[in-house]
Structure formats: structure tokens, C-alpha cells
Sequence to fold (394 residues):
Amino acid sequence: MIGVILTLNAGSSSLKFALYGEDGDTPLAQGMVDRIGGNEASLSLKDGAGNALPVADISPNDHTQALAVVLDNLRQAFPDTELRAIGHRVVHGGTDYAQPVLVDQTVLSKLDKLSPFAPLHQPHNLAGIRAAMEAFPGVPQIACFDTAFHRTHPWVNDAFALPRDLYDRGVRRYGFHGLSYEYITGELQASAPLIAASRVVVAHLGNGASMCAIQNGRSVASTMGFSALDGLPMGTRCGQLDPGVLLYLLDQEGMSSDAIADMLYRRSGLLGLSGGLSNDMRTLEQSGTPEARQAIEYFVFRIQRELGAMAAAMGGIDGLVFCGGIGENSRLIRARICERTEWMGLEIDHARNDENARIISSDISRVTAMVIPTDEGLVIVRAARAHLAQENAT
Ligand code: AMP
Fold:
């Protein structure tokens, strides 16, 4: 029997998963159950080389059934394996969790209390954990948090200028995408230790987007705050917004909080700015309509602004790392951001950028610009492996 570790990332109607061996960075298999609870639910499953594996038709009603479907298919594809641990991506660890944690009923009820802080994500993440605990009562379940990496923020980057009791009640700038930032930090420490020990801004630019100021490996500031709405515009999320707009929509336009949440999370960002054309950067780049061009212009401009703020939070910048679907693949967006960062001492090498090279700044550039594909799943599986190693040692 080969020992394996499963990682789960449960969303509102999806369950992403990956199966890893006891060592190695590449998953043995990965995939996703999509549209859970709907008529068109589907399962995709790929092996480590990215080849599609055969799967049966499915119709799961909830995460428990979706997980059962995943397990059935994994058992068929990998019959001689034994599950040693399950790692979960959890969006919110509040102020308590700065590290991954072994989940038991006490932890679960603490995490439940954080659901009001992330109502669109946390309950689904926890549904995934409950489903896994039910299916494998004896297997360790390790929760890894998107907020954990940012627990090192100084108070000024943790607080809002609101009455103090709100801070005590948890209204703080938590920051998200922490698993991605942790991965990039580890990669820098391994391959570019001098840069890792300096002042780095990581731009995680995907359908969700944020930036993080990382000084000597520790998060100092992030563009995301209390929720995953703040900061940069995203595929469908608005990014930074004057709270006066919300008051106006509530009081003058008579919008309900549900309708506002739907607009801010699902109909804004690149999708909203492009007049409903698309949330997908590839489509916008190819389209060329005036609205698509403006959406891209806004995206780049907000990154340029926030990059200045992130650098200022550290008293300067020595490295800029791009990751996420847009950061890793869009030469156009990277070039436009870097061109506007010349004043900070960054000189892009366009040939390197066009080749998607790891370093895309010139040899004489004072700031090193890099492209590093992120891997949040690997951070989760490493946390699960660390737990197993600790268990074996005791
Ligand atoms: P993610 O959420 O990290 O998977 O990133 C998704 C985003 O990356 C979408 O907006 C995609 O359009 C964008 N993306 C992926 N590949 C490319 C590409 N070659 N050029 C531009 N954008 C891309």
C-alpha cells in the first residue's frame, strides 16, 4: 500500500481536490467536482501529467456526496493506496490561527464562528471538512488558512480607523491569498535568498487578485483587508471602494444587502467594467472593444497605485513577483505594469517577458522582476506531511 494525502478546496458549488504521494511536489491526480447540487454536475480528473482520466456520470447533491464521488473515482484509479491525511484550504483563520491546525470538534466550532466574516466561502470550506471527517473519522484533517500568512502585520496595517471596539470584535484587515504568498516566499528563499531577505511585492493576479508586501519573508501589508473584496479589481469583484457608495446604494437606490453583495462579488471588477463582456483577461485582451480596453486600463492603474503603497509600507522595493493566471501568463499586463514601475528602479527586459522567463527584468535593473507559478496545493500538502512527520516523531 502506498500512503497518500488528499487536499480539498471546497467552494459554494465546487470541490477541487488533489492526491499526492508521501513525498514529491507533483500530484498523482487532481480535479474538480463542479456545479454540486445542480443538474449539470460534472467531475474532471487528471493524472499527474495532466492527462484526463475516465470518470462516471455524477449527480451529487452536497459536498458529502461530491467527496464520495471523488473517493470512488480515486480508489478506482489508484487501488493500492491508503489515505494518511487530508489537507483543507480554509479561507479564514481569524486572529487565532497563524499556522495550519489539526481539526477537531473544538477547532471546527471556532472556525464556524468565523463564518460571518466570510459568508461566501467559510461555510463551504467547513462543509468540506465535515464531509471528510465523516468519511474518514480516524484520518488527520489539517486546515490551512488564507489569512494565516498575514498575521505578522503591524497594527497600523491590521486596524481600520473605526471605533476601537469594532477592532476587538474582529473588524480588521486580515488579508487573503496567504497560501500563495507562503509558496512564493518559500520558492524565493530556496532559489533567490538575497531577494527573499529583502523587500518584495508579490502580485497574485488571477480571477481573484491581491498584492502583498513581504519584508524578509514576513507579510507587512496586503491589498486585501476585512474581506476578499478589497484592493485590486478582480474578475468579478470590485476591489477598493468608497464605503459611501454602499451607503448610497442602501439608502438612495433601495438595494438590499444581498443585492449589493451579489453586485460586489459577482458582477463588478473586469466583468462590470467591460460592460458585462467578460471576467476573463484573455477574452478582454483579444476583444479590443473600448470597454474591454478601459477594464484593462483600470486593472493596470490600480495595480500601479497599490504597488506604490506596498513599496511605501516597506520603505522601498527590491523584488516584484508575478503569479496567478494573469501574472504567470499575460505578457501584456506584466509589461504594462513594469513600464509604469520604472520610476521605482525596475527596468523590464521585453524579450525575457515575452518568453515568460523566470526573471523578466534587465541585468541592470535595480528591482528584480520575476514570474513564479504559484502552487497553493503544495503548501497544503506540505502542512499535512509536516503533521504526519511530527506524529511519527512522538
Ligand atoms: P486564476 O484564477 O489564477 O486561474 O487566473 C485566471 C485568470 O488568468 C483569467 O482572467 C484568465 O484569463 C487569465 N489568464 C490565463 N492565461 C492567460 C493568458 N495567456 N493571457 C492572459 N490572461 C490569462
Summary: The pocket of adenosine monophosphate is lined by residues 206-207, 235, 280-282, 285, 324-326, 329-330 (CB under 6 Å). The longest helix spans residues 290-314. The longest strand covers residues 81-90. The two ends are 23 Å apart (CA to CA).
